[in-house]
Design goal:
By secondary structure, this protein is α+β, with helices and mostly antiparallel strands. The protein is built from 13 helices and 74 strands. About 20% of the residues lie in helices and about 40% in strands. It is elongated, with a radius of gyration of 58 Å.
Length: about 1000
């Protein structure tokens, strides 16, 4: 009962407070059937990954891009009311209709998922949930079914739920929270385990059934049907020991209980959607109480979308812009009186003092015969001058009229009232004249007016007040506006084409750095003494020392038109322009813009004022306020996505994740779309085709780019949207590569390489074969020549041997002749065997040489012959030309030793030079020497001259043998010297064995 009493007291308090306070409503744009919606009854709304809004109505499923509505339908649909829209991780859109059918969006149509067909007649309704953006959970009063569309796997888990019926469910990242009759439990989607929670809470209360709720992955239970009072009860559940237990209770609003449809958490605020408005639980405030709210979401631009069951969609760019419902809702002028009071002049002649801190009206005064166009608070006297078209009234800060018609003249059109000094004012009446008056006295203090003022001022009396009048023509030009800067006592006069300034009695032209003047529209001075003036065209200027030092403009200022009012805000400036409000820094960099996309029609705003961090706007449609601190936190970024890609006139599948390969010289056309629900029509685009390129900006009406005849290479096309505030969205990519022509592709080049190598190989092989043939032919020729030489050398040897045998017979030495013939026959047999070979084993050649030496010993018994053979040679297989060493030994016998008298000696050495892999044969005699032998041969008979034939033939063989050899056979013949005297001859033969 204490709770009920408390609720009654709280209700009375809110009732009393509601009668004393003025209502404040958010500013929104109502999207209805007149804008293209198929119905004003909205069940559900979501935003997909690309930025599209999906709307479930009682007349179909709709996709919205900020400009157009596209309706999706299916011939299999049993009902046209769609709700519970879900997007899975692959970007696919799923929904259900009231005919209990599940649909998936494919291309531009709805596809009925017949996997759920067995459950069509199961109950009155389906409710669709999602788990981890990949699994759908379908729940009815009788069943719970999970479906994995990626695996096409459907599971009915109803049998595992041990509750008395299934009332409602909610899903988080791990469990399904299920409420039944007087109890609840949860099913673990990962393990498949179900646990039932205690029903003790229900047994001790009569609050009725509770609905499960998931907020930021945490579970709650809420009661929209409290039987004791109209109070929303919200219970949070805490997971402890693998169980969910009730943690605490939150008492919400009155008049919600039977009307709560949904509770949604956005950022740090909990929103209750009900059939009598939208409630924000943290601040306990209710808005939009005349609407039946079905859902609320926040899109990627920080806009809010509120769907209703009776009035379409309410589009709210920000909750920080509010409309204040005062007695009158059409204002000519607003002005700050102090930190709490905002004075506003209405179109019907009222002056209202609105207390912004307490949200109430402190005073309201009806002025007689006055349509106020200007309010001038006088801080030092706590009074207000309120001017109309041709009269001025004087009020205090409580709205009391102190004096009526201080100035009145049917011929005066009052545009501005300027306070020059205390109690001294300047009335700007446009092209006619200006008036200088003192509403307290009939005399004027010395204002330091220049000579033109003094000379041209005319005095006249009206309503017991004395005025000084100055005509525009007296100054020499017509001025449309006049401004006064009190800090340095400077007047600014604006004509239709130029601006003048007056200081210390001089009127001069206000010029920029180029020496040119321009018409300005409004002036304001900041705390640092910098004068900011709006141009009559677009943009603004900064004035210092009566000179325009900076002239600032950019496309955003051009878009919003002429500046009508300026307010300094810290290091920023707030401009009221023709079609919007611009907030920028002193360099003209745009920080924020406020316009129709924020549901503010700036063209109907007459005046703006700043109080603390709240910007107030007064106009034809009412009084508005903007919390700039909160508003600045919302950065609106437009989404961009690639719609289609056409390659050579054919549509390409843009869902391919990998880089696409295109043919050489392809014609590529890319269609893209930027989505900004705050200002879709003002979007611009920026793109680049390669990473190393600079961004190129496009106008907003271009939504496709064509790249004809692209050359080969890798491309990464990027496109992003730029909104009206100059904020760039995140770029989207389309990666593709253009293949080179087939004759430049790797496989073709590889084939060409293989072909070239094959041709080269065949050509080289043919060339080698040809060379081999030529070499073989040459070798055959040389073999023939060698054999011919050898055949000529053999008879020569035989001739010499027969001569020796004849000599033995003549000298009557038959026994030696017989022995000689035996050795000679063996030697001839061996020579005949070697004559058919190109090369013979070294040891065979040495054996033939031994037989030859044996013959020569029989002839020259007085010669000492010594044959030395390296022991290593017996283990090495060495081939040498046959009968190659013997001619040099024969030459030593018959030329070097034949004519020597006395001791004769011949040394023959066979040595293996291992490092050089070379056989070295040294033949050394102690004969006469080459020169002495040569003299003897010249004096000798013809027979003796022919004795050197074998040696000459061997030299020819050497040339033939060395042909095409890298390591040549060398034969070196030198004289042996002792004390400068020739004492013999040495022959050195080097035969490499590796060639």
């Amino acid at each position: 009962m204490k709770t009920t009493a408390g609720h009654i007291i709280l209700f009375v308090f809110f009732l009393f407070l509601g009668n004393s306070l003025l209502s404040q409503e958010i500013v929104y744009r109502n999207i209805t059937m007149q804008d293209g919606l198929p119905s004003n009854r909205i069940y559900d709304i979501i935003q997909d990954q690309k930025g599209y809004m999906w709307i479930g109505t009682d007349n179909g499923l709709v996709r919205y891009n900020g400009k157009e509505f596209q309706k999706f339908s299916s011939s299999y649909s049993l009902d046209n009311e769609f709700t519970h829209i879900k997007e899975l991780k692959d970007g696919s859109i799923w929904c259900i209709n009231f005919g209990n059918q599940v649909f998936k969006v494919q291309e531009d149509s709805l596809v009925w998922v017949d996997a759920f067909k067995p459950y069509l007649q199961d109950s009155k309704y389906f409710i669709l949930h999602e788990w981890r953006d990949s699994v759908l959970v379908l729940h009815t009063p009788n069943r719970i079914v999970t479906y994995d569309p990626f695996e096409n796997n459907l599971k009915d888990i109803t049998s595992k739920i041990t509750l008395n019926g299934i009332s409602r469910i909610s899903v988080n990242s791990k469990n399904i929270l299920i409420s039944g009759f007087l109890t609840y439990g949860y099913y673990n989607l990962e393990t498949g385990e179900f646990k039932r929670s205690s029903s003790y809470f229900y047994s001790r209360s009569i609050f009725g059934s509770l609905s499960p709720l998931c907020i930021n992955d945490s579970f709650y239970l809420f009661s929209p049907n409290n039987l004791l009072s109209d109070t929303l009860i919200l219970y949070s559940l805490q997971e402890s020991d693998n169980k969910y237990i009730i943690k605490d209770t939150f008492v919400g609003f009155y008049e919600i209980a039977s009307n709560a449809n949904l509770i949604i958490r956005i950022n740090d605020k909990n929103w209750v959607c009900s059939n009598n408005g939208l409630f924000e639980m943290n601040s306990k405030k209710r808005i939009l109480e005349n609407y039946n709210i079905s859902n609320i979401i926040k899109d990627k631009e920080s806009n809010y979308w509120i769907s209703t069951l009776n009035s379409g969609i309410l589009f709210v760019p920000t909750f920080d812009i509010k409309k204040h419902d005062l007695e009158e809702n059409s204002f000519r002028f607003i002005k700050k009186l102090n930190q709490n009071i905002l004075a506003a002049g209405t179109t019907n002649g009222q002056i209202i003092g609105y207390n912004v801190k307490e949200n109430k009206i402190d005073f309201s005064t009806q002025l007689p015969h006055l349509d106020p166009t200007l309010l001038l608070p006088l801080q030092h006297t706590q009074t207000i001058l309120a001017s109309g078209k041709n009269e001025i009234n004087y009020l205090d800060y409580f709205g009391n009229i102190l004096q009526e018609k201080i100035a009145s003249n049917a011929n005066i059109n009052i545009k501005d009232i300027i306070e020059v000094q205390k109690d001294l004012f300047l009335i700007n009446s446009g092209k006619h004249h200006i008036l200088l008056f003192n509403h307290q006295k009939d005399t004027y203090p010395n204002m330091g007016l220049n000579s033109k003022w003094k000379r041209n001022t005319k005095s006249y009396q009206r309503y017991n007040r004395k005025y000084l009048s100055l005509s525009n023509t007296d100054i020499g030009f017509y001025f449309e506006k006049i401004y006064y800067i009190q800090q340095d006592s400077t007047f600014f006069y604006v004509s239709s084409t130029q601006t003048y300034y007056e200081q210390e009695g001089l009127i001069q032209l206000l010029k920029n750095k180029d020496g040119k003047s321009m018409p300005l529209n409004c002036f304001i001075e900041n705390k640092e003494g910098v004068v900011i003036a709006g141009k009559k065209t677009t943009g603004f200027v900064l004035i210092e020392n009566n000179s325009i030092v900076h002239e600032i403009s950019n496309p955003i200022f051009d878009q919003y038109g002429m500046i009508r009012q300026i307010i300094p805000y810290g290091n920023q400036l707030i401009f009221l322009a023709s079609t919007g409000i611009i907030i920028s820094d002193y360099a003209g960099n745009i920080i924020h813009t406020i316009d129709e996309s924020d549901n503010i029609k700036a063209a109907s705003i007459y005046s703006i004022e700043l109080m603390d961090h709240t910007l107030w706007l007064g106009g034809v449609e009412g009084l508005f306020s903007i919390d700039l601190k909160q508003y600045y936190e919302n950065e609106h970024k437009a989404e961009t996505h690639i719609v289609d890609v056409m390659v050579n006139g054919e549509k390409l599948n843009t869902k391919i994740n990998r880089s696409v390969q295109l043919k050489n010289n392809s014609d590529v056309e890319i269609f893209f779309e930027g989505i900004s629900y705050k200002g879709n029509s003002s979007l611009k685009y920026s793109y680049k085709l390669n990473e190393d390129e600079t961004w190129k900006e496009l106008p907003g009406n271009i939504k496709s780019l064509r790249f004809p005849n692209l050359s080969r290479g890798n491309y990464n096309f990027q496109i992003l949207s730029i909104n009206e505030e100059g904020i760039k969205g995140n770029p989207v990519h389309f990666k593709f590569s253009v293949r080179p022509p087939f004759w430049m592709q790797w496989w073709f080049l590889f084939l060409c390489f293989i072909g070239w190598v094959s041709v080269f190989f065949l050509w080289n092989r043919r060339k080698i074969r040809q060379l081999e043939k030529e070499n073989k032919w040459e070798q055959d020729i040389r073999k023939s020549e060698l054999k011919a030489l050898q055949s000529r050398m053999n008879p020569h040897f035989i001739f010499n041997s027969l001569n020796s045998i004849q000599h033995l017979i003549v000298t009557l030495e038959p026994e030696k002749a017989n022995e000689y013939l035996g050795v000679f026959s063996n030697l001839m047999r061996l020579y005949l065997q070697h004559s058919e070979k190109d090369n013979v084993d070294l040891m065979e050649e040495i054996n033939a040489l031994k037989l030859y030496l044996q013959l020569e010993k029989l002839r020259f018994h007085d010669i000492m012959v010594q044959l030395n053979i390296d022991e290593e040679l017996s283990d090495i297989a060495i081939k040498i030309p046959p009968l190659f060493i013997q001619p040099h030994v024969e030459n030593a016998f018959k030329h070097g030793l034949l004519h020597k008298e006395g001791y004769k000696k011949l040394n023959i050495d066979f040595k293996w030079i291992k490092p050089l892999q070379t056989l070295r044969v040294t033949i050394k005699d102690n004969g006469l020497g080459r020169d002495a032998v040569k003299e003897i041969q010249e004096k000798s008979t013809v027979v003796l001259k022919g004795l050197s034939y074998s040696l000459a033939a061997n030299e020819s063989r050497l040339k033939l043998l060395n042909y095409n050899r890298t390591q040549k056979i060398e034969v070196n013949i030198d004289d042996v010297l002792e004390n400068g005297t020739i004492v013999g001859t040495k022959v050195e033969i080097l035969i490499p064995i590796n060639d």
